[in-house]
Amino acid sequence: MKLLVPIKWVVDYQLRVRVREDGSGVDASGLKMSMNPFDEIALEEAVRLRESGIARELVVVSCGTAASQETLRTALAMGADRAVLIETDVLLQPLAVAKLLKTLAQRELPQLVIMGKQAIDDDANQTAQMLAAMLGWPQATFASKLQVTGTTAIVSREIDGGLETLELSLPAVVSADLRLNTPRYASLPNVMKARRAPIECLPAAGLGVDLQPRLTTVRVSAPQPRPAGVRVDSVEALAARLREALGMGGEA
Ligand code: AMP
What we know:
The protein is of the alpha/beta class and 252 residues long. Helices cover 27% and strands 27% of the residues. A 9-stranded mixed sheet has the order 11-10-9-12-8-1-6-7-13, sandwiched between helices. The chain has a two-stranded antiparallel sheet with strand order 2-5. Strands 3-4 form a two-stranded antiparallel ribbon.
C-alpha cells in the first residue's frame, strides 16, 4: 500500500505573528517556519503504518516555494521514503492546493492520503474535504484513531458527545486531529541523511491547474488586547467583583 502525506510549511506555532498595519494580512517575513503541527501528526501515523509493514511506501508532498523543501527534509528525516515539491511562487488557497494534490494523487495512486485537519496559518480546514470530493474518494475528517487493513480504513472521530467510528473503502482521504498520536523527533543521523536526499521538484505551472485565488481577504485584524487582571484579597471580594461585573450589585 502506498501512502501520500501533504505537508504545509507554516510560521512556527510558538511564534506570535503581527498583523500588517494596513490590515491586508499578517507579516510573516523573517519568522521561523516549521511543519504544520497537524501534518506532523498525519506523518507520524503514516510512518507507523510504514514501520508496521501495512504500507510499502510513504510519499510526502508540499506545494509552495522552493524554500518549502526544508519541511520535506524534516519529513524524510521522520521516515518518509520520497518527497515531492510542487513548486510555485503563487500564494495558494486551499482550492488550488486540493487541485494540485489531486493531480499528484492521480499520478502516484496512493491507497490512502493522510493529511492535517487544518493548516494553522489559514485555519481553513478545507483542503482534505475538497481533495476527497475532487477525487471522488471517501473521506474521514478529524481522525483520532486509524486502523488500516488491505482494503479498508476504520477511523474514529471525536464528535459532540462521543466517538463516531467510520469504515471507508480504500482509496480514501483521512484528516488527522490532535489526539491521533504524538509525533516523534527526527534523530540527528536521519536529519543529516535527509539533507542529502533527492527531492523531486514539479513546477506547478506545468501541471495545467488553475491556481487563481477565488477568495479575497477583506481585512485581517489583531485580537483585542486583554485588559490587565485584578488581584483581590478574599473569596468574598472576588464574589463582589463578579456580581458587580454581572450587574447584580456589589453586596451579597
Ligand atoms: P487547510 O485546508 O488550509 O486548513 O489545510 C488542511 C491540510 O491540507 C493541511 O494540514 C495539509 O495537510 C494540507 N495542505 C494545505 N496547504 C498545503 C500546501 N501548500 N502543501 C501541502 N499540503 C497542504
